[in-house]
Request: fold
Amino acid sequence: MIKTTKTLLVATLLFTATAGLFHTPVSAADENYKIAVVDMQTVLASYEKRKAKYDDLQKQVDSLQSGIDKMSKDIEAARKDYEERRATLTDEERVKLETKITNDYANYQNELQKNQRQIDGMEELVLNEVLKDIQEAIEKIATDNSYHLVLNKGKGPRGAVLYASNSIDITPRILEQLNK
Reply:
């Protein structure tokens, strides 16, 4: 509820702030304002470098996952073996196997958490690099074409624009710049 209210408030403030641009009288000395929109969702989904980086990241995740899967299978096999042999084990053997399985499981959980932190860090680096590239492309096209304001055309509550004509949408130019 609070998040929705905050989102609505931010959207209203953005709309009010940008609406003022359209109603502000322009003096003879001022030039006309040029405004453009970019669909960031489309740019992110269609940026070839992002796709390639995430494919590489997925390969690293798969590699890490194979090690985790092996640990899990080994623990499950040890647990099954223990259950089958438990009645014939001495107290000392039983305690020793229980301790080993418990320690192996704790190591498995630690490795899983470590891998998740590593993956999160790698993903953050990739996302930062991709967003930097996109920002640079937007700035270049905006500067080259004398745009004064570029807004996110994204759909839903995260978008800053409630409506935009396709004539001011520079998303294809951004993608062309990024994917060349």
Observations:
- The first helix runs from residue 2 to 23.
